[in-house]
Amino acid sequence: MIDVVLPQLGESVTEGTVSKWLVREGEVVAQGQTLLEVATDKADAEVPAPSAGRVAKLLVREGDVVPVKTVVARIDETTSAAAERGEGTQASAAAPAGPAAPPAAARAPLASPSIRKEALEQGVDLGAMRGTGERGRITKEDLARAHPAISPPEHEAPSVRAPAPVPVMVTPPTMPAIASAKVDGFVPPIPNVGYGQFKVPPYRQHEGDQIVPFTRRRRITADHMTYSKVTSPHVVTVAEVDLFRAQKLRDAHKDRYKKEGHALTMLAFLVVAAARALRETPQLNARVLEDSYVLLRDVNIGVAVDSPDGLVVPVVRRADELGVRGIVRAIDDLAARAKSGKITIDDLSGASFSVSNPGIKGNLYGGAIINQPNVGILRMGEIQKRVVVVEVDGEDLMAIHPVMYMALSYDHRVVDGVAANAFLWRVTELLEKADFEV
């Protein structure tokens, strides 16, 4: 038997949701044939058959959340030769209509190492429990309800605790796992419940109200944004940039780029300027670890683009080594694949800094939420014609120029104001001089 293992689907991906099985038990498959589709917090992926043979067992169901490196199926490779002679058709035809449900105890429950250790010490069978945490993860409270000897977290209010220990929580709560954590004495508010003496009033539906369920992508985005705001102390600083020279440079070359099938945009100029400034200010090209931080070698800039499933952030790798033309091609390629749904997990992994472009209706400026695990994100504002003061032959004159506000959000845990202001000032200088090779 050959194990089919859920592979490592990206740099920061730890688990995936089995969205669809494309084969059935008993079916004969070829090596490399797609067995199942998996959805992750980055993108969707396919898992191919590692060998030809007969699908002996499907070990997980559609909808299951599976950690990477988990065995999801088994293939009997000894039947591959028989299949080539046509002897496997009967087994395939007799296959059941869908995957058999594996026993609950055979599936690995989602739980942290500390939870597993405590469950082992108290003799609690995690396989018989249904977790109440995010994506069914077993929490400290679940253990406390299953075994009275285990103390729940100190901050848990009586109003949100189960009245008596029960081995299985049948109805999963809406409370995210982050609300059950106490960090350095800080008890976070509980979404949809409240904080301290404040309680969120219950929703009562009225005629005409439309309840829109969260899509999987929207839930992932919501969780990411909440985590980022709780984890990183955001500071926002804003700069005004005169795009007169950059606009003239763009106007002089945009038609040539258009004939080549590319769009010469102000976003491309901004990414080039940001990449140069990141190389000069490495504090912004970093990520935070447990009790340290890393100044990253490569400047990989994530560029937020729209897709059918919502906003995604594909990555332009080693952006500081690319000129305007290289950045334009990279952005166009990533944006096209995102809109067609062909973006891959590798395209979305490894950003060291992010740039957000809300488009022509982006308003004056806005402070974006940091894309974790980055420590900074630069958001473009709307480009508008404004009256500015320019110096001509030593004399101050008023002129009408295209002007844009840029807002830098940075993580104040590791980025001080001096570094952030130096970075933003340098980006502004590069854009105003428009010293770019196009």
Provide structural commentary.
The chain is globular, with a radius of gyration of 27 Å. The N and C termini lie far apart (57 Å). A hairpin with a 4-residue loop joins β12 (286-288) and β13. The strands form 6 sheets. Strands 11, 14, 17, 18, 19, 20 and 21 form a 7-stranded mixed β-sheet that branches. A 4-stranded antiparallel β-sheet has the order 1-8-6-3. A 4-stranded antiparallel β-sheet has the order 5-4-2-7, with no helix packed on it. Residues 88-106 and 154-181 have low confidence and may be disordered. It has helices spanning 80-84, 89-93, 113-122, 140-146, 216-231, 244-259, 266-280, 324-339, 417-433, and strands at 2-5, 15-21, 28-29, 34-39, 44-48, 53-58, 65-67, 71-76, 194-195, 198-199, 234-242, 286-288, 293-295, 301-303, 305-307, 310-312, 315-316, 353-356, 376-380, 384-392, 395-411. The protein is an alpha+beta fold and 438 residues long.
Write the layout of secondary structure elements.
Layout (H helix, E strand, L loop, with lengths): L1 E4 L9 E7 L6 E2 L4 E6 L4 E5 L4 E6 L6 E3 L3 E6 L3 H5 L4 H5 L19 H10 L17 H7 L47 E2 L2 E2 L16 H16 L2 E9 L1 H16 L6 H15 L5 E3 L4 E3 L5 E3 L1 E3 L2 E3 L2 E2 L7 H16 L13 E4 L19 E5 L3 E9 L2 E17 L5 H17 L5
Parallel strand pairs: 14-18, 18-19
Antiparallel strand pairs: 1-8, 2-4, 2-7, 3-6, 4-5, 6-8, 9-10, 11-21, 12-13, 14-17, 15-16, 19-21, 20-21
